[in-house]
Write a structure and sequence with these properties.
2 domains, 8 helices
């Protein structure tokens, strides 16, 4: 407290009572800051973060031949779609837990590696919940149709009234059979195979830069991470692992009493050249082939149980029925460069700046309450000589 403030309180003892509130507010703000600084980034698993895949008009790979050429820039999710994000989707589109269009796979709840439970007796809008330590893990047991419905929901505003059946894809209740073509003007969608391939393996920095064998910016096979007790990737005593040639594969990430498991997104090794994590390992991810309608789709990237590093490399691709789902398959979405701004993004790394703004605003409000502005003070017969 400044000398001028102490003088003010001496002249106006009735204002001293507010100092108790000020002390309480200060203690609260300091506690809030301390807690926020201690929270891991994975605690903020909800908002979608994006990276831009530039270098439009790049050449295709030659080994394997023909993949990765994309004419325009686009954005792709920085991390795999998480259990927390999918739970938010479920509680929005299925508030009563009736599971329309089979968007919830029962193995998400019954499977040891699934991350989402359904409680039919819970209140409306809260039927689905993430399991312990599973919110920041990638969602699995999802089909291509599930990923398409998330795309529609996001494109239509991501509210409880947003349609899952039209938008990026015209589904009309389909959960099996032919995957429809992506619609023109889609603002959120499953990446094409070329888009996914480029985001994972292209070296970037030009239109003829070449390709890596692995999505960790390396031609060297990655080393398998293990896991902490809460499922974060770890290697050589370091966790999280956010750089280097590592990945979650080969059933080495043992936690939650499982011989290999999914791990926290973004904690298993270095990112691709464009900044996307876990495009080698953790979960195999859906792609939309060319985006045309068809009876099959592809997964790429390998997963936590891939036997050896070959499954994580650029030549590997697996053909799947669009209705397929397992504990080794997940997804991430793509978008035109200008579209993700419609979905609020909070980067955990910027939380300190947000808190500083909040704390500064609270401090200003408290000062204004304790030491009123000139017009208000003068109206009460109080002379204020300091700003």
């Amino acid at each position: 407290m400044s000398k001028r403030e102490r003088l003010f309180l001496k002249r106006h003892p009735d204002a001293k009572a507010t100092t108790v509130n000020r002390i309480s507010l200060t203690a609260f703000c300091l506690s809030l800051a301390a807690v926020a600084c201690l929270l891991p980034a994975s605690a903020f698993a909800g908002p979608i973060q994006w990276v831009t895949v530039g270098d439009p008009g790049n050449t295709a790979d030659t080994a394997p031949s023909g993949y990765g050429a994309v004419a325009t820039s686009f954005q792709i999710m920085k991390y795999e779609f998480s259990n927390q994000q999918y739970t938010d989707f479920l509680n929005s589109v299925d508030r009563n837990g009736t599971n329309p269009y089979s968007v919830y796979n029962a193995e998400m709840g019954s499977g040891a590696r699934g991350g989402i439970s359904l409680t039919t007796g819970a209140s409306s809008g809260s039927k689905y919940a993430v399991k312990t330590n599973m919110g920041d893990k990638p969602v699995n047991f999802v089909s291509w149709f599930d990923a398409a419905r998330v795309s529609n929901w996001l494109m239509n505003g991501a509210t409880s009234s947003s349609s899952t059946e039209t938008g990026a894809y015209t589904l009309n209740g389909a959960t099996t059979g032919i995957a429809p073509a992506v619609n023109n003007g889609a603002t959120f969608y499953i990446p094409t195979e070329d888009q996914w391939y480029k985001a994972a393996y292209y070296k970037g920095g030009g239109t003829n830069a070449g390709y890596w064998n692995y999505a960790t910016q390396s031609d060297t096979a990655p080393r398998a991470v293990s896991a902490t007790t809460v499922g974060s990737g770890t290697f050589g005593g370091v966790s999280p692992v956010t750089s280097g040639t590592c990945a979650n594969f080969n059933q080495k990430a043992d936690w939650n009493s499982q011989d290999g498991n999914v791990t926290t997104v973004g904690t298993n090794g270095g990112a691709s050249a464009y900044g996307a994590f876990d495009m080698s390992g953790n979960l195999g991810e859906w792609n939309d082939l060319t985006g045309a309608a068809g009876t099959s789709r592809q997964t790429r990237g390998g997963h936590w149980s891939s036997d050896g590093s070959l499954g994580l490399s650029s030549p590997e691709r697996e053909s799947r029925a669009p209705s397929f789902g397992s504990n080794a398959v997940g997804f991430r979405l793509a978008s035109p460069v200008s579209s993700p701004s419609a979905v609020p993004e909070i980067d955990p790394n910027s939380l300190g700046s947000v808190l500083a703004l909040v704390l500064g605003s609270l401090g200003l409000l408290e000062r204004r309450r304790l030491f009123p502005c000139k017009p208000e003070a003068q109206a009460r017969g109080i002379r204020v000589a300091f700003p």
